[in-house]
Amino acid sequence: MLSWLPTLPSTRTLVIAVLVVVAVALAGLGGWAWHAASQRRVAAAYAETMARVQAADTPEAPAEAKVAAARDLAQLLAQYPSARPVPQAAFELGNLRFATKDYAGARAAYELALQRGAGGMIRALARSGVARTFEAERDFAKAAEAYGALVKELDARSFVYEDALIDYARALELAGRKDEAVAAYQKLLKDVPNARRADDIRTRLAALGTAAR
């Protein structure tokens, strides 16, 4: 009487179970295929637009070409806001807008690159871009603040550290903060003893009435 033993599922139940598994597998495969195709479309759109951007982002390119490339890039970012290349594309948009003296627009693009997780050199250059837009607008206090934020993120061994700290010191000078500018120049000579622009820094310190330490 082994009534307590489990009974085998019926053939109908097995068929239904198999069909469910197959349906789930097909749905997953279809979703993967759709995602892969979508990613290919996005990559192709970015590649095409970035090719036009690179052609426009040269000294020889007319302003009209830069404006058109910036417009195309802005539209692409709006169309695919979650795409992987967004930080790089936003940084390039900032450069194009800066070149056409749209400083507020450039700053917004650089900030988008930072917000979307730009890392490494792109992050440093985007931060520098934000500061340059303030400097171009002659808002030297905000420029100094932005350059200072960049310097804090950099290691003294970074090859952009020297330029970032010089930019910071210059912005401090322009903002009328002489003592802080002197301290920044002296910090650079201390942190980077073999600075490429050491002679220029000593000249600036002399002009500010301070000898290099």
Task: Give structural notes.
The structure is a single chain. With 213 residues, the chain is mainly α. The chain has 2 domains: 22-137, Alpha Horseshoe (Serine Threonine Protein Phosphatase 5, Tetratricopeptide repeat); 144-213. The protein contains 9 helices and no strands. The chain has helices at residues 11-56, 63-79, 86-99, 103-115, 120-136, 140-153, 161-174, 178-191, 198-207. Helix 1 runs antiparallel to helix 2, helix 3 (86-99) packs antiparallel against helix 4 (103-115) and helix 7 packs antiparallel against helix 8. The longest helix is centred in the first third of the chain and has 46 residues, at 11-56. The mean pLDDT is 83.
List keywords for this structure.
213 residues, mainly alpha, Serine Threonine Protein Phosphatase 5, Tetratricopeptide repeat, 9 helices, elongated
Give the topology, please.
Elements: H1 11-56, H2 63-79, H3 86-99, H4 103-115, H5 120-136, H6 140-153, H7 161-174, H8 178-191, H9 198-207
